[in-house]
């Protein structure tokens, strides 16, 4: 996240009287709010243009993560220094755009699942050697940094490492990951015509946001 993006997020959090999540990560929730017994998680975006950028390598993980998120969009002057107005979108309001992206990539993800399951023990022997036990170094050559050290250890099914069957699982996961990476979208924009359907907030931001959230929870 750039310094400017971070500043805009902080401005929106303060403006709407929201909270930063505890232990927030870059790919996690941007802000949160507890209201009427509901825990609301927000995705915060800002722009100096009519449309809003999202993320690089947009894939099914983002679709699943955003399915229940509430959104706040900040529209700034061309210099990016002054906030002009904001728009709010509930999960239901965002669902059409999200489902459009889901439909676009879902076939590719289905292909990745099918293709990865076709990798068999002969492929493992040809690519990784014919061994009775594979080491963690063997596994890392296949799946690289897609597993943490803890995950590599969790996959152990013998004292010395991985059986051929378990190593085949890792190779299949690698195949699935590589194909899915090719299925991701490069920073899809939420277009102006979509954003303009969302309610605009220009004053009394905390109260107006909470009113809109309560309305969304009733639908």
Describe the structure.
The two termini are 34 Å apart. It is built from 9 helices and 5 strands. α3 (91-117) packs across α7. The mean pLDDT is 93. The chain is α+β, with helices and mostly antiparallel strands and 219 residues long. Strands 1-2-3-4-5 form a 5-stranded mixed β-sheet.
Percentage of β-strand residues = 5-15%
Tally of separate helices: 9
- The number of strands is 5
Main structural class: alpha+beta
Estimated radius of gyration:
22 Å
Helix content: 40-55%
Q: Could you give the order of strands across the largest sheet? A: 1-2-3-4-5
Task: Outline the low-pLDDT stretches.
Answer: none
Oligomer: single chain
Can you tag this structure with a few keywords?
48% helix; alpha+beta; 219 residues; 5 strands; five-stranded mixed beta sheet
SSE blueprint:
Layout: H1 3-15, E1 31-35, E2 38-47, H2 60-66, E3 70-76, E4 83-89, H3 91-117, H4 121-128, H5 136-143, H6 149-154, H7 164-181, H8 192-195, E5 200-201, H9 205-218
Parallel strand pairs: 2-3
Antiparallel strand pairs: 1-2, 3-4, 4-5
Helix pairs in contact: 3-7
Quick recap:
The protein is α+β, with helices and mostly antiparallel strands and 219 residues long. The protein contains 9 helices and 5 strands. Helices cover 48% and strands 14% of the residues.
